[in-house]
Amino acid sequence: MNRTTLSLIAGTAALAAVTGFAVLDPPATAGTRTAEATAERPVERTSLLCPAPSLSDLAETSYTSFTPVTKGTGSDGKAELLPAAEQSADGAGGKGGGKKKADKPVLTPKEPGTPVTGDVSGSGTPALLGTAEGKFAPGWSLQETTEVAAGTGRGLQGVNCTAPETEFWFPGASTASDRTDYVHLTNPDDSAAVVDLEVYGKDGALQTTAGEDITVRPHSSEPILLSTLTDEKQENLTVHVNVRSGRVGAAIQALDERLGGDWLAAAADPAGNLVLPGIPKDATAVRLVAFTPGDSDADLKVRLASPSGSITPAGNETLHVKAGRTTAVDLGDVTRGEAGSLILTPTDQSVPVVAAVRVIRGKGDKQETAFIPAAAPVGARATSADNSSKGTTLALTAPTGTAKVKVTASAGSGGGTAQSQTFTLKAGTTQHVEAPVPSGLKGTYALTVEPVSGGPVYAARTLVATGDGVPGFTIQTLPGDRGTVAVPEADEDLSVLQK
Asked: Which one, 37, 112, 300, 407, has the greatest CB density within 10 A?
């Protein structure tokens, strides 16, 4: 095997490891070519991690698993969602990794194309480790949704269970007196992970007392109360999770005494152009939080993509973000009764930025909070699990060019037939589309978004569940599901043995 072939295989393995594993098919016949153009193949293994849902005894949590049907997969495969190993007080509980004998899957999917759900109650639910192989791996999606009836963080909380990574940015965290924010770190691997937490406020990096060399044991999860890392009380912070050894899943649970709470998911990687999709049309307050990790200040144009086109929020035409400092601006009821997405672009020089918005619905003591981080585009396909016929709103944004998008509602978890519909989005607009619903729906269903033509598309899904007059809601963005991986097609070349 020559050096070129070895490099191709090494590159393929590194790329496939993002979400799973891909293999090179053996050549049917010997040939003179060493490699052809790459081909998109379904991933063969996917890992997803769900944080521990709640510390409240009043919490009711549901998990929904869905894998879209993907061409090119085999007939075999499996997927399961298992509790992370719990650590005892002396640290021995999860020592050495592995699963307890009593562990049973929270849910076990049966076939791609049909969602599967599982429910738990109370405060004792641990973080969950999910693995999908074979036909269940490409585009696998897991949603964790929790309803908390009362207390700090009451309302609806939701998060997409995510793949393990080595770096995360969370603009929008807080150590204010009415906020309780936990950084959840989950390690799926057989060896310990070592993590540094860096916190940035309005004047730069905050001095932390225990943010370095945090060890997350194998197959376990560690919730870290953000206020224990620093004595400073600041309303708007950016948290940087830097994994120095291993991989983890990370999410921040942001709980407010008066304003409910939700999960703050990681923002898209630092970039000069950002899209924050799916601000509800009835939002009563929107706060934009931004941070630039580099040495240069960033000057950004702020636009709102509405159903009729892009507009500039009055009084907030631009945003200046100082290097290494967290900047926040209150935009009020910026959507003014229409669907909207924020689009941030450089005024001149492009400087990488991370951003998120905090959204509030309701008034007085009946307010609830959700977060929208800057999102990655849908790409080839994105999926949102755990939808209901009346509580779901799908927002689609085409920031730069007209786009045509196919939206498919899966079969229901308890029955129903899949339905599809195609939508056309004008450039610079956001639409709350009337997404299809499975015919004869029973249970919940998944929505799959697939751009057909045109420019890039961004998407977000809002779930609503009002209780006792509180407009409970949660928002998840829909980045690409990374269901395929580019694999070079290699042929044998026996002539290299003669060189």
From this structure: 300
